[in-house]
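Researcher: Let's do a round of design. I'm pasting the structure tokens now; please hold your answer until I've finished.
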């Protein structure tokens, strides 16, 4: 037998073994969650803004091997289709609940809507190899995004920044509490000797901003840093003075 015949026979045996393996078929249709993110921002001083995220519908299903483009790949890959559809995002000023029929406010309604992302979807095709083969990759992934409609304006940007602030925590409001070096007794630039390189054998002088707060010395990269590079704690030792004399 020639080398090509040996390869062809080996591939046929592998395909036969894979074809005889147990298989499963998956078909899931899931309603993805709807998320509402409220804020304390009131553009008209009355109605607060919230971001509504509709993650649409998620479908996960397996494909038939006959749908593979190449006949050599028959029974070689396990295929999955992940289809996410009807995904949208909208900013709402006023009271609105998902139970209401639609996002179209009437003329006399106090609720205003600012679409951010039009309804869209994405299709992912995942192929996972059943048995390792030097001739084929173990995983293949293709992504299709039919269309994406995105709306942007100064009003939308300002409202979205209010949403982002929610996930930033309270650093901006309680900066003095979170960052004690903001109330330093003494502060200023200073050259600090650092050791770098393999085995920390290279000495390098670096400019650092130092803040002394009580017994603590904070080393910052620059003024206004949210975190410190290192800190030291000083221990003060007080020795009493003794006087001796005679009357």
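Researcher: That's everything. Go ahead.
Model: Designed sequence:
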């Amino acid at each position: 037998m020639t080398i090509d015949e040996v390869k062809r026979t080996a591939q046929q045996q592998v395909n036969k073994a894979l074809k005889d393996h147990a298989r499963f078929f998956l078909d899931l249709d899931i309603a993805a969650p709807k998320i509402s993110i409220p804020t304390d921002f009131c553009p008209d001083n009355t109605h607060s803004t919230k971001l509504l995220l509709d993650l649409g519908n998620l479908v996960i299903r397996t494909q038939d091997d006959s749908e593979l483009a190449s006949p050599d790949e028959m029974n070689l890959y396990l295929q999955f289709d992940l289809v996410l559809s009807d995904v949208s995002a909208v900013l709402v000023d006023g009271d609105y609940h998902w139970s209401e029929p639609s996002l179209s406010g009437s003329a006399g309604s106090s609720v205003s809507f600012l679409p951010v992302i039009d309804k869209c979807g994405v299709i992912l095709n995942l192929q996972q190899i059943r048995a390792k083969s030097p001739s084929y990759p173990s995983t293949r992934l293709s992504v299709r995004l039919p269309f994406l409609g995105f709306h942007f304006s100064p009003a939308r940007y300002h409202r979205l920044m209010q949403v982002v602030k929610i996930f930033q925590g309270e650093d901006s409001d309680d900066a003095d509490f979170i960052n004690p070096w903001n109330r330093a007794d003494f502060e200023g630039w200073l050259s600090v000797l650092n050791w770098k390189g393999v085995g920390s054998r290279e000495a390098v002088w670096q400019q650092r901003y130092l803040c002394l707060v009580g017994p603590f010395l904070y080393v910052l990269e620059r003024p206004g840093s949210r975190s410190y590079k290192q800190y030291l704690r000083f221990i003060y030792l007080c020795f009493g003075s003794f006087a001796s004399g005679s009357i």
